[in-house]
Amino acid sequence: MGKQAGKPQTQRQLKVGEELRHALAWIIERGELRDPVLTGRAITITEVRVSPDLRNATAFIMPLGGGDAEDIAAALRRAKSFLRRLIAQSVKLRHVPDLSFQPDVSFDTYSHIDNILHKPEVARDLGPREDDAEEEGDA
Fold first, then answer.
1. pLDDT of residue 31
2. How far apart are CA 86 and CA 61, in angstroms?
């Protein structure tokens, strides 16, 4: 799945998303979640995307040090109502968005692209072309 490309978020959406990201990271860091899948795990909230009406938010998560991101996302989904209650206490919003959690696959995608670009047959094609070298010599 991953992050959705599309219409850019408004300043308000970005601000609310960042507030939610900080609140979620703080809750997880303090170890307030008792789910065994989450206990003792280092989890990064890479981004929180908020819908234009601020009613829904998707948090993109990534386990540090490896592990199954989908298991962690499922555990966070189970704790969603508890998380919303804690967020309501720490973030000043008229309405706390409904939360969903998705593994952040963007780092895997970037790594895959980087690996492809460093393959010898691809690197050869990405080097300076002979036409470019001749033009530089003519100048």
1. 85
2. 18
Q: With cut-offs at 50, 70 and 90, classify the pLDDT of residue 134.
A: low
Summarised one tens digit per residue, pLDDT across range 17-45 is: 999 999 999 998 888 888 888 888 888 99
The predicted model scores a pTM of 0.71
Q: Distance between CA atoms of 132 and 54, rounded to whole angstroms?
A: 51
CA atoms within 13 A on the CB side of 102: 14
A 10 A CB-CB count for 5 gives 6
In the structure encoding, which two tokens stand for residue 139, read together? 């100048």
Segment 86-93 long-range contacts (CB within 8 Å, at least 24 positions apart): 86/23, 86/27, 86/32, 87/20, 87/23, 87/24, 87/27, 90/23, 90/26, 91/19, 91/20, 91/23, 93/16, 93/19, 93/54
Chain-centre distance for alpha carbon 25: 12
Helix or strand or coil: residue 61? strand
Amino acid at residue number 6: G
